[in-house]
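Q: What would this chain look like folded?
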Amino acid sequence: MKIKATDPDLSTIYSRIKDESLDLQPDFQRAEVWRIPKKKLLIDTILRDWQVPPVHVVLNEDSMVQEVLDGQQRLSAIRDFMDDRFRVDGRIEPFDDDLNDLNGMFYSQLPNKVKNRFDRYAIRVFEILEYNQGEPGELFNRLNESLKLTSAEKRNAYVGALRTQIKSLVDELDINDIDKRFLGFSNQRMAYHDLFIKLCYMLEARSVTASFTEKQLNDRAREDRPFATTIVSAVKTAIKVIGAAKEELDEAGKIIHVTKASINSWLFFIAYQKLTTRKFEENSLIEAFVSFEADRAYYRTLNKAPRRSYSLGYEVVNELFSIFGTRSTSRVTTVSSLVIRDSIISLFYYMYQSDSLSEFNSSKASSMKTLIESLAVSDKPVVVVVEEFADDVIWEAAL
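A: My prediction, written as structure tokens:
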């Protein structure tokens, strides 16, 4: 790995950001987590002509684009200031009369002398080139050891095909207008990236019971072992289905908020269908999502499901909604919860679509028939039947 040092001024850096020859990658590292007060503090540092820590970039020799490895928060703050997104705070201590005169000004309002001095402020940039796989990511993690990065942030530092795949899935959410208001959580600390790599791992194993450790995922990112394109395509299809369902819910005036746990289960359920069955009914899946989430929202509000004909019975449906809610808010990542949420979604799909069992692969169809029969004939509480079923699924997967 070679490292070349340069000292471009802020005017040059800003131009490179704007013409995309310097890629800040807004979802790279920790996404843009600096709040306005911290951004103002950086601008104050520059206006005082104090030193700013160097930036590390990785040169993509195919496109000749520099990708920011370390320093994204600083460069994003500089870009935002030069875009007039926030003002100078001239009251930051230690107090300075000259800076106080600039208080409340946008970049475009700065006196020409001050603006010229700001534009000519230079930042040391270390450009990384001729590197081996994993070296830039290792450098990033060493530079940020004290920041307590999440596993997803560490993984995303490893440039390669796997990172590109996961980023494309995060981008797909935006394309389909699926945001934190609908999901109930944001991509802060790269939560979406974390969701997708784990989802793809389970789909690769064709099972929600697939076990993995953070080390395994981190090693995979370091070694740059991407997922099969069929898996990534299936997840994109699942996102598209949920996006279409959200659009229907919005048009009907139904405000729905899912959770990280439930969206993970829905994405797995739909993508798994795409991967394992010949009969993939996109419209049926959209309808099922709309019906399930609308009915579940009704249940959360009134503590009962809407009155309609359910083939498993009204009381059973109420219990299933209760179990799903519990397993979506506590013990959400246990294998049993993953199996239970997937099974309940499958049961409702069966109830919403009369011929849906034919859309499951033979193994899942057989498994769901067993659960449906158990719910029909067992004297045990619904929660016990469902939990025992999940235990059997987990046991069989372990054999």
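The beta strands are 2-6, 22-23, 55-60, 65-70, 125-129.
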